[in-house]
C-alpha cells in the first residue's frame, strides 16, 4: 500500500524532533528514525489497527509515547497526525479537528 504523510503530520514530526532534541542532542534524530519506521510499516499493515475518532486508525509507536493516526482511502494510507500520547484526550480531539 502507498503511504503519504500529510502536512499536519510533518509538523507533528518536526515538533517531536525538537522536543526530544532539546532533551538530549541526537535524541531528535533517533525519534524521527523510529517514527518513520513505524510509518513505513503501514505499507504492509495499514488498516489493521484499531479505529478511533471516526475515520482514523491508531498505530502506537514501538519506542516513543506517540501514535500515528492515519486513514485509508483508494489504496493509500494517509498519515494525518503523529500524536504525543501524553496529551489529554480533549487536546487530541481538538488537534484532529483542525
Overall shape? globular
Count of folded domains: 1
**Quaternary arrangement of the chains shown?**
single chain
The chain-level structural class is: alpha+beta
> Class in CATH?
Alpha Beta
| Biggest sheet architecture | 5 strands, mixed
State the separation between the terminal residues, measured CA to CA.
26 Å
Q: What is the level-2 CATH architecture name?
A: 2-Layer Sandwich
Query: Count the helices. How many?
Result: 4
CATH superfamily: RelE-like
**Helix-strand sequence:** EHHHEEEEH
In the CATH hierarchy, the third-tier topology is known as YaeB-like fold
Count every beta strand, where a strand is a DSSP E run of 2 or more residues: 5
Question: How would you characterize this protein structure?
Answer:
Helix 1 runs antiparallel to helix 2 (27-40). Helix content is 44%, strand content 29%. Strands 1-5-4-3-2 form a 5-stranded mixed sheet. The chain has one domain: YaeB-like fold (2-Layer Sandwich), CATH 3.30.2310.20. Strand 2 and strand 3 (56-60) form a beta hairpin. It is α+β, with helices and mostly antiparallel strands and 98 residues long.
Amino acid at each position: 500500500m502507498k503511504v503519504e504523510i500529510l502536512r499536519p503530520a510533518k509538523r507533528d514530526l518536526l515538533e517531536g524532533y525538537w522536543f526530544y532534541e532539546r532533551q538530549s542532542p541526537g535524541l531528535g534524530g533517533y525519534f524521527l528514525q523510529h517514527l518513520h519506521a513505524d510509518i513505513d510499516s503501514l505499507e504492509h499493515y495499514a488498516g489493521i489497527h484499531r479505529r478511533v475518532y471516526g475515520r482514523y486508525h491508531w498505530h502506537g509507536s514501538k519506542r516513543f509515547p506517540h501514535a500515528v493516526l492515519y486513514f485509508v482511502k483508494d489504496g493509500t494510507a494517509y498519515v494525518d497526525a503523529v500524536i504525543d500520547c501524553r496529551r489529554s484526550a480533549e487536546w487530541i480531539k481538538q488537534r484532529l479537528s483542525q
